[in-house]
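Q: Joint fold for the lines below.
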Amino acid sequence: MGATLHELGHLTHYWNNTYTNPNTTVSYSSTHLLLQESFASYVGWYLGEEYYKTVGKQMSNSALIDITGNNRQQWRTSWKRGDPATPGEYSPLFVDLTDNLEQEQQMIPYLLPDNIVGVPASTIWEIITTSQNWAQCRQKLSQRLVPTYCTSAQLETYLANFDEWFSYPDNR
Ligand SMILES: [Zn+2]
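A: Joint structure:
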């Protein structure tokens, strides 16, 4: 179910930026792959969890047990874009703005610092549909999240890993 919902996430993003808002300057096909895949992963995870709850599945509190296959909690900044074994564009960028797991508490060193919780789907949608690259996405995250969902310092801590990832030539 998570994989199907992931693909529907791509479709809604594509459809919005191509047809619903034909005058947008943000082209879906030119949107950076990390943004495309991280948003689709968010949809797969978020709607997947909603679905499995309705059929009585118990959700896990572990970052590493993921019934939807889309929470991307194993992502690391060393994973490169397009690497078949560890495709770095499948990140938890949007999942971690929403979930209430603080991975660092699970004592697994590579997991991201994640002290931001509860950003609603409507805000994530607004950010993804108006961002084509990391600079735009980063600016919108700051505008929409601070101070409602986190402090500027918390956001900077969170985004540092993504800044690092985008700084590698392979990932541009
Ligand atoms: Zn995808």
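Q: Anything notable?
A: Residues 6, 10, 37, 40 surround zinc ion (CB under 6 Å). The helical segments are 2-20, 33-54, 95-98, 121-128, 134-145, 152-167.
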